[in-house]
Specification:
It is a single chain. The protein is mainly alpha-helical and 190 residues long. It has 2 domains: 1-65 and 157-190, no CATH class; 67-136, no CATH class. It is 50% helix and 12% strand. The longest helix is centred in the last third of the chain and has 29 residues, at 161-189. The relative contact order is 0.12.
């Protein structure tokens, strides 16, 4: 990857993050864009949800993923039409989406003859769509920041995709374990 200070071996890290900031799935790739990563990440997240639900079968665990919000880097016809959970993919920059929704708000379902991209644009202009998309940043970005700042994962120590992936898996496991520990100790204290 070319930077202002020269070439750096870089990777594109993808995280699936739950509403309670756990990381059930991740992947590391050399792809410079996110577009080809959404479907594999949705599959990995669904697999993790099924595994978690299977282990929680006694208490009626749910293996369904409700909504997958994704930023504009994932917007492609393949990602809009792929099978899988419901998704809300931004069709442009965040600030522009809010301006468009304010200038031309929408309600109800999109027109029946709308293309997948037009359906997504319509959904992003509804109050429900904007509210659901607003949670994306509050869900994913704190986990990214935590990995970088709290666990110190700004660079990988090991070389190669497999080694760097194992390092990312370890860092994600640490984040998950600390989150679970805090949750458990807080529940015991009350």
């Amino acid at each position: 990857m070319n930077t202002r200070t020269g070439w750096v071996q870089g990777y594109n890290a993808q995280l699936a993050v739950t509403a309670d900031h756990l990381i059930p799935a991740l992947m590391l790739t050399r792809a410079p864009t996110d577009m080809d990563c959404l479907q594999p990440m949705m599959n990995a997240a669904q697999s993790a949800a099924r595994t978690i639900a299977h282990t929680r079968a006694d208490d009626g665990g749910d293996d369904e993923i409700g909504l997958v919000p994704a930023d504009a880097g994932y917007c492609s016809m393949d990602n809009l039409t792929a099978p899988g959970p419901n998704r809300l993919i931004a069709t442009g920059k965040d600030r522009r989406l809010a301006d468009e929704a304010a200038d031309d708000p929408r309600t109800g379902p999109p027109p029946p003859d709308a293309s997948p991209l037009e359906r997504m644009r319509h959904q992003m202009k509804t109050p429900e769509g904007l509210a659901a998309y607003a949670h994306r940043g509050a869900t994913v970005e704190p986990v990214n920041a935590h990995l970088k700042d709290q666990t110190g994962l700004r660079r990988f120590s090991r070389r190669g995709l497999a080694a760097a992936t194992s390092e990312l898996n370890l860092a994600a496991a640490v984040v998950n374990l600390l989150k679970l520990h805090r949750h458990t100790t807080a529940a015991l204290a009350t």
